[in-house]
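Xanthine dehydrogenase YagR molybdenum-binding subunit
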Amino acid sequence: MTTTAAAYVGSTMDRVEGLEKVTGQARYAFEHSPRDLAYAVPVPAAVARGEVRSIDVDAVVQLPGVIAAIWHGNAPRLSTPENAELAVLQSSRVAYRGQYIAIVVAETLQEAREAAQRLRVEYDAEPHDVELRVDHPEMYRPDHVNPNYPTDTELGDPDAAFAAAPVVVDAMYSTPAEHNNPMEPQATVAVWDGDGLTLYDSNQGASAVRDTLAPLFGLPPENIRVISPHVGGGFGSKAAPKPSVVAAALAAKQVGRPVKLAVTRQQMFAVTGYRTPTIQRVRLGADTDGRLTAIMHEAFEQSSRIHEFAEQTTTPTRMMYAAPNRRTTHRLVRLDVPTPSYMRAPGEAPGMFALESAMDELAVACKIDPVELRIRNDPAADPESGLPFSSRNLVACLREGARRFGWADRDPAPGVRRRGRWLIGTGVASSTYPTYRVASQATARCEPDGTFTVRIAASDIGTGARTALTQIAADELRTSPDRVRVGIGDSAMPSAMVAGGSMGTASWGTAVVRACQELMEELDRRAGEVPATGLETSADTSEEIGAQRRFARHAFGAQFAEVAVDADTGETRVLRLLGGFAAGRIINPKTARSQFIGGMTMGLSMALMEESLMDDEFGDYLNHDFAQYHIAACADVRDVDAFWVEEDDPHLNPMGSKGIGEIGIVGTAAAVANAVYHATGVRIRDLPIRLDKLVR
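Structure:
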């Protein structure tokens, strides 16, 4: 066998599936069309709370091409799921506007849409409540916050320390509901074969979809196969199965034919999750040198009536800065709204907006440079757990970012720099995201011709995971990437955790490394001889991850922004964004930079544009399409760049890497808001930063 000592991890490499994507050969979920295919279109509820009294299915099934009209009165029965969002068509209750109450199946998509629009539904509507407010009488303390963090934490006597502090900040901040909008909406093609179910599905984890749907349909997991080799983005909206995949499987079971279902862009604002709106209070107490003596961070957020999802909004505050007295809390209210879910950096993105805005306010109050203030409060160990950091290079990111950005020349006075009609300002904020691994499995196989195949049910949602795993495998197999094929996106492959929480490459990569190491050891024992049938080994990382030493494992970063604000209209433009990150060993600089600046662009969008507007009387989000839900476009991103500091952390995983999918968005909105204050002297504490908030 030919071997090579070249190190591919850490080198720039083009995506291995790039040609397939740009030539249209890559097949996404909706592009699978088995024989005898039918089309399903869900019917959304038109009230925010109540009961479905009747549905005139008899009239609809008489329409041309209609195969079936399914509702709770005739739908196949499902087992009771842990997440009631997945109990599709199992009850007459309506928990929120847009919830699926019926499914029309027809020979063509056009016929299914026409019939769904003409389906007559009568409701017994009830008064609804969709308003998040701090004083809501049903606000409560959840048992834990996502995924399993303590709801509240407290050390010392923060109230007394805050009262005694010579410099204080006490402010309320808010972030709106935001909706995930990946390029490819959720879509599923469901095919039953007896008691076997195959799903061509757009998701962030084929194993998770299989394991969730199996008990729902009363099947052993091996009877379900989920296939999703190419996924057009997710941002968290596809991290867990949503009602659409259940609806497709249910409809296919009912009609006895393959069924294709695609969620429309408008429906995505109801049934695929979103970032909960938050109301946050941050209180900081410090001495006159800016050293924190007290930190208190409270978060108020919402969930639905049918399933609890409590976002971990204040958790980054628990480890970000040193202070002997500290408290973090979360409170939740269940409203007549869709269930929130994961959206890029859930918790960290809104939580760090509040914390980093408050830190900027503290820097102003103490008359200390905002970069220096953060450096002064950098802790030596995790302030709450006491655990040592596996590595922590926030200070390096701040200092190197400040150097590259030209921060040293900054005049701290707000509202005094102009370029014509534009007010100019700069701002900074810190970034962080936890680093985890979850047990996964992988196989590595050598063929007689010297090529290799690695298989793992990982998911590439556009981040370059397939390419990174190819590089990791090539290094361990001591060969070149062109001799390695990585198979992913199929639940028939060894089980893997979802692509989310910046845990994908760390979790999958560990399993791939161990499987490849086993294979190379076996080849060495055989003196490199490969049997005619090939040679395969496998790995399961459960034991390794369960036995790992305890550290506080986090990635860190610093975001710098320069903005221009029109003095007359309040129009805000971001002139420059620079992010510096400490994220362990970078597997592929090309895909890494793409992830960093992609997150930063999404953070810019969070700062200036993204906002789902709830109509209290209507009981739904009004701006549920791209015409009204605004996101950053190329013209809004004028100069965005990212760099990383070298970091050697041996306590993470065999690659020494930290996840980078989410950290880019964290802190960006605060950096922009802080720059807007520096430009105008107006402190914006409620996102997004609209014109009316700046014009006085």
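The CA atoms of residues 49 and 127 lie 7 Å apart.
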